[in-house]
Amino acid sequence: MSPSKSSDIDFTTFHNIVDGKKRGSNTAHQGVNPTTGEQLWDVPIAGQDDVNDAVEAAEKAFPGWAATPMDKRKELLQKFVELYKNYEKEFTDLLCKETGKPRMFASQEVQGVGAFAGHHCTLSLPEERIEDDEKVVTTRYKPLGIVGAICPWNFPLVLSIGKIAPALVTGNVIIVKPSPFTPYTTLKLVELAQEVLPPGVVQVLGGDDKLGPMFTAHPKIAKISFTGSIATGKKIMEACAKTLKRVTLELGGNDASIVLPDVEIDKVAPEVAMGAFFNSGQVCVATKRIYIHESIYRPFLDKMIEFTKSIKVGSSDDEGVLLGPIQNSMQYEKVKGFFKDTKEKGYKFAVGSPDVEDTGKGFFVQPTIIDNPPNGSKIIEEEPFGPIVPCQPWSDEAEVIRRANNTNTGLGACVWGKDVKHAEEVGLQLEAGSVFINSFEKPTPQAFFGGHKESGIGGEWGTTGLLAYCNGHVMHVYKEKTEPKPSV
User: Which whole-number Å values give the CA distances from 365 to 35, 314, 334, in the listed order?
Assistant: First the structure.
């Protein structure tokens, strides 16, 4: 029988959750609705005492949770998912307000929570046994202990559950820090989890920029899982070195999409454009550089332009809207910097205006394509994290592969071509953690997700990702030696 709704869950008041209890603070901040610029509800700002109390509660909870059989842990996580499904409309409404996403995409993210948690409940930790005449060696995997999850603002729900689910399934306990830009859905998600999970197993602390360093400095937090920028990831890794914390860092990307000359232009061009503009480009694995074979460059670009002109930008519930606003003012200003640089350098705007219209009523940016800017330009070299993408022609396959790999990042990449075998051969040469053939970037909980180069350290999701939450534990059992019998 599925759990029913609780009358105690109020989607207009928000608390930190420590040891299974709601907790406020002396200071609060507010998120901003990016479609209007209006302030949202108060959120408590956690401090060092809150971190210490959460760690103490996690320490108490860990031995019992780690000793709980994995099947029972999965059963409780599934029970939480069933309870959560009763509130999908409320979570969708809330996600629309804090992120500005079009409702259909907000709804997809809300439903993704169940998919991410559900898939992790189908996984098991591997166990390896080797035996010879002398001994039996068994390799098992044990939970690390207390995990600190530092989560981003672009997909606050999915990227929170993407850390919570593997941590809990493997027997860890977890303290979640949502982004101060989008704290609401994650605070409510963890509050709801208290209806099912033991106190201290999953906790949440909202706060400001001072809170993350409290996580990385605390000697009893065993691991930090962080999704965010390369610059912040480097600071986290440096801080975690002081206590030799385990770290998983999923950082920025500058994904290349290579379009081979045999594609069906009418079919593929809109897909490539959508890969660049989905979620207004605010995706770590969005397509950020598009390389089109010179023989089809002009017709392919024209088809992308045609599709891009049809994209409607607006508020979550506007009819037919595909793209919402940039989520926050800080990122909005960064994105505008790419428009300013491109305009000042005189590069060609194939579609979209060189000037971002600042209406004062939300952080909206129209999707924009830059036609053949030079190598070395800001729009080629750096990640905009917004709806502006450069296209370049290519003629030599080995050269375009070098161009695609000529970056300090390596998160995702795409190859588009009718000859799938050949597209895979190109994909195998791309220096990226996830390569997609004939699709834009669509990470899945079924597969390990991580980056090469400065796009991160380690990874999560899939069976391999479970090991990121574990220590190896090897048992060597030596056999009793038998004394040789004397010969008669």
Answer: 11, 10, 12
**Residues 338 and 238 grouped into a single domain:** no
246 and 259 part of one domain: no
Q: Find the catalytic residue in 250, 271, 431, 454.
A: 250
User: Does 431 lie in the same domain as 374?
Assistant: yes
With bands split at pLDDT 50, 70 and 90, how would you rate the model's confidence at 255?
A: very high
Contact 273, 307 (CB under 8 A): yes
pLDDT tens digits, 154-191? 999 999 999 999 999 999 999 999 999 999 999 999 99
C-beta neighbour count of 238 within 10 angstroms: 10
To the query of whether residue 134 is one of the catalytic residues in this protein, the response is no
Residue 488 within any structural domain of the chain: no
Listed residue (114, 119, 182) closest to 151, CA to CA: 182
DSSP class of residue 313 equals: B
Q: What is the pLDDT of residues 187-203, one digit of tens each?
A: 999 999 999 999 999 99
Which structure tokens are listed for 273? Answer: 């454009």
Cα gap 360→358, rounded to integer Å: 6
User: Is position 2 within any domain?
Assistant: no
Paired sense of beta strands 368-371 and 348-351, if any: antiparallel
Number of structural domains in the chain: 2
What are the tens digits of pLDDT across the range 303-317?
A: 999 999 999 999 999
Query: Per-residue confidence at 1, pLDDT binned at 50, 70, 90?
Result: low
Query: Is the residue at 103 inside a domain?
Result: yes
Would 450 be classed as within a structural domain?
no
Residue 299 sits in which domain range?
255-437
C-alpha 263/C-alpha 313 separation (Å) is 28
Task: Judge whether 127 and 70 are in contact, CB under 8 Å.
Answer: no
